[in-house]
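Input (structure):
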C-alpha cells in the first residue's frame, strides 16, 4: 500500500509539472501575441533606464538648439539681422521679398532631400513610426543631421509648421545612434528611440506626462515596464532640464477659467468636438488631394517644396501671419483675442498654406499648426457658446 501511494504521488507530481510547463508555454505564446501577461522585463531595464536619463538631458539641449536655429534663420531671412530669438514674421522688413523667401527655402529643402536623403521629407512623427516598424529603430547619422537642418530652414523661411515634430524625430535619432553605438537589441533601440522622441516633446511643451502618453499611443505600441520606465524617466528629466534651458511654465498659458461649466457648457463641448472632427477630416482630405496634384506634375519632386513655398509667399505677402509656426497666435487666441480677422486668417489662409506645403512634402511638424487651428475654431464658437471666460 505504501509503495502504491508513493507511485501515485509521483505520478500526480509529474502531471502537475507537465501542467505547469504547458501553462508556461501558453503564457509565453500569449505574451508574444500581445495578450495580457508580461515576462519580458529583465534587470537590463536598469541599464536602459540610466541611458534614457542621459538621453532626456540630450533631448532638452537638442530642443533648445533647434529653437535657436529657427530663430536665427527667421531673423536673417525676414529681418536681415543675426538674432536667435523667435520673432513674428509680420514684423518683417523686406517688403516684396516676403513673396520669394518661402520659395527659396523650399528649393533648398528640395535640394537637400534629393542629394542628401529623401528621408527628411515629411513631418517627423510618421517617419519615427516608420523607423520603428520597418527599420529596426535604426536612424542613420545623415538623417539625424539633415532632418533638423531642413526643418529649421522650412520654418525659418516662413513654413507654417511647428518645431515639435522634428524635435521628436531628432531626439529619437540621437537616442537611436547611442543605442546602435552600444549594440543594443532592436527592442532596446526602440525603447531609447521613443525615450528620445518623447523627451524632445516634453522639452518643447513642458508637458512630460502628455509626452509619455503620446509616446505610448503612437510610438511604443506596448504598455510594458521594460519600455514604460525608461521613457517616463527620459520625459521627467527633459522637463526638469527644460526649466533651466528654455524657461519655466508651459509653452502656452491660458487665463483662469471655471472648473465647473454645467450642462450648457458640456453641450458646447460636444458641439466643438463635432466641428473639430469635421475640421480634421477637411484638413486630411485637403492634404491628400494636394499630394495627388503634386504627384501629377511632370517635374521632379525636388521642385515641389519651392512651388508650395511660392504660393505660401503670395498668401504671406497679403497676410504675413499665415507664415511661420504662429506660437504667438496661439497665445493670443488663448488669452481672449477673438477678432474676426484673426480667426478667419488662421482657419482659412494659414490652413491653406499648411495644406499646400504638407502636400508638397516639405519638412516640418504638424502639432503646433493643428493646435492653432483648434484654438481658432474654439475662438469662433466662443461667440455662440456659453461664456466660460477666455482660455476655455
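Output (sequence):
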Amino acid at each position: 500500500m505504501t509503495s502504491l501511494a508513493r507511485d501515485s504521488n509521483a505520478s500526480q507530481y509529474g502531471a502537475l509539472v507537465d501542467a505547469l510547463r504547458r501553462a508556461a508555454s501558453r503564457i509565453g505564446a500569449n505574451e508574444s501575441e500581445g495578450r495580457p501577461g508580461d515576462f519580458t522585463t529583465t534587470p537590463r531595464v536598469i541599464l536602459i533606464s540610466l541611458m534614457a536619463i542621459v538621453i532626456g538631458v540630450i533631448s532638452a539641449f537638442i530642443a533648445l538648439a533647434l529653437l535657436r536655429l529657427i530663430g536665427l534663420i527667421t531673423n536673417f531671412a525676414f529681418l536681415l539681422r543675426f538674432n536667435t530669438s523667435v520673432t513674428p514674421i509680420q514684423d518683417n522688413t523686406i517688403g516684396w521679398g516676403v513673396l520669394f523667401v518661402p520659395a527659396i527655402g523650399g528649393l533648398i529643402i528640395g535640394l537637400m532631400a534629393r542629394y542628401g536623403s529623401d528621408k527628411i521629407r515629411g513631418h517627423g512623427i510618421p517617419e519615427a513610426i516608420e523607423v520603428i516598424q520597418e527599420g529596426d529603430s535604426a536612424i542613420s547619422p545623415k538623417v539625424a543631421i539633415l532632418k533638423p537642418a531642413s526643418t529649421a530652414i522650412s520654418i525659418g523661411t516662413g513654413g507654417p509648421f511647428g518645431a515639435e515634430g522634428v524635435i521628436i524625430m531628432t531626439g529619437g535619432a540621437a537616442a537611436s545612434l547611442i543605442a546602435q553605438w552600444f549594440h543594443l537589441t532592436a527592442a532596446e533601440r526602440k525603447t531609447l528611440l521613443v525615450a528620445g522622441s518623447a523627451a524632445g516633446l516634453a522639452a518643447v511643451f513642458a508637458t512630460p506626462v502628455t509626452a509619455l502618453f503620446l509616446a505610448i499611443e503612437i510610438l511604443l505600441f506596448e504598455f510594458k515596464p521594460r519600455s514604460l520606465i525608461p521613457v517616463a524617466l527620459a520625459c521627467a528629466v527633459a522637463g526638469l532640464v527644460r526649466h533651466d534651458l528654455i524657461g519655466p511654465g508651459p509653452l502656452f498659458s491660458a487665463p483662469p477659467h471655471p472648473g465647473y461649466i454645467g450642462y450648457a457648457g458640456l453641450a458646447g463641448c460636444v458641439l466643438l468636438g463635432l466641428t473639430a472632427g469635421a475640421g480634421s477630416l477637411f484638413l486630411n482630405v485637403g492634404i491628400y488631394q494636394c499630394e495627388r496634384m503634386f504627384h501629377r506634375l511632370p517635374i521632379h519632386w525636388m521642385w515641389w517644396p519651392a512651388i508650395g513655398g511660392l504660393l505660401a509667399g503670395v498668401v504671406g505677402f497679403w497676410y504675413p501671419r499665415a507664415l511661420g509656426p504662429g506660437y504667438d497666435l496661439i497665445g493670443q487666441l488663448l488669452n481672449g483675442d477673438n477678432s474676426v480677422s484673426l480667426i478667419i486668417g488662421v482657419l482659412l489662409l494659414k490652413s491653406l498654406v499648411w495644406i499646400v506645403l504638407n502636400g508638397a512634402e516639405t519638412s516640418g511638424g504638424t502639432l503646433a499648426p493643428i493646435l492653432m487651428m483648434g484654438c481658432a475654431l474654439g475662438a469662433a464658437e466662443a461667440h455662440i457658446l456659453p461664456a466660460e471666460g477666455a482660455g476655455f
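Notes: The radius of gyration is 25 Å. The chain has two domains: 44-245, 262-381.
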